[in-house]
Design goal:
Layout: H1 2-18, E1 26-29, E2 32-36, E3 40-46, E4 56-60, E5 64-75, E6 78-89, E7 100-104, E8 107-113
Antiparallel strand pairs: 1-2, 2-3, 3-8, 4-5, 5-6, 7-8
Length: 128
């Protein structure tokens, strides 16, 4: 049932993008919830308890985001390292130099301004 919902959402998103209509809203990829509007792409991810902002590294380029985390666990009867890595192809191009991130109560939020570079340009063909 979940696959059917994703397929229908993708179908509507493709239809909307073909006619420059707003997309259907949010989608979830690899546990990351994405929401996109005309100017930005917002990503939200709940991280394991005990992690803080120093345990997390985020890298982005035009259309790929990587989130990595490493947390040293210690306490009575508990020791070890908790590690994760998520690499996601973004649904649009973004401006990496303007990306902002915040982390509160295990929730990581990444705001990525969309790149306005994808405008259509008509090319005039020169004659012979």
């Amino acid at each position: 049932m979940t696959k059917l919902k994703r397929d229908i959402d993708r179908l509507f998103d493709d239809f909307c993008s073909d006619f420059d209509l707003p997309r259907t809203g949010s989608s979830v990829v690899g546990g990351i919830r994405f929401r996109m509007d005309d100017t930005r792409l917002l990503a939200r991810l709940r991280l394991p308890e005990g992690m803080d902002s120093d345990d997390i590294a985020i890298s982005v380029n035009d259309d790929v985001m990587v989130i990595e985390g490493r947390h040293q666990m210690s306490g009575p009867g508990v020791s070890g390292t908790q590690v994760f890595r998520k690499r996601v192809n973004l649904p649009c191009r973004i401006r990496p130099e303007d990306v902002k991130a915040s982390f509160r109560e295990s929730m990581l939020e990444i705001e990525m301004p969309r790149c306005g570079c994808s405008t259509v340009r008509t090319i005039r063909i020169e004659k012979g």
